[in-house]
Specification:
This protein is of the alpha/beta class. The chain is about 40% helix and about 20% strand. It has two domains: about 140 residues, Aconitase, domain 4, CATH 3.20.19.10; about 30 residues. Helix 4 crosses helix 5 and helix 7 packs across helix 8.
Length: about 170
Amino acid sequence: MSHGKVWKYGDNVNTDVIFPGRYTYQIMTPEEMARHALEDQDPGFAKSVQPGDVIVAGKNFGCGSSREQAAACLKAAGIQAVVAKSFARIYFRNAINLGLAVLQSEEAADRLETGDAVEVDLARGEIRSAKGTFRFHPLPESVLGIIAAGGLIEYTKTKLDAAENETAKE
């Protein structure tokens, strides 16, 4: 469960807005990428975002190119979840692969505003705020595992290590 505040954006927030395209081919650590997250859309975001904060957006969040940096920079900035009416398919997959929760809730996207305090319960499929409790489809156990592990690579390593330990016991 994460606690944080809302950062609200509209429809069609594309990957060049999330992570400016001019930095795409520069080698950067996730922490360096986080310093540029949403800088063209919201210049104060990277300096003010706190671990546990949540982005709330409209339709088609993450449209545009398939760059992983758009998900990586938000995760590195401390964003625990992105809640939107809908997501671009490739962004959705990149976010899950990197361990960033992406949650679809039209009601939350309509009712929550910048600065609202929220609590996200991934296991129960709930976003709670003073404005109400908003449901989303609970994530499958495997996706929860990927998020908890910090991404697909770490999740896979953990699963492989567990399998090797079981095989060694036999």
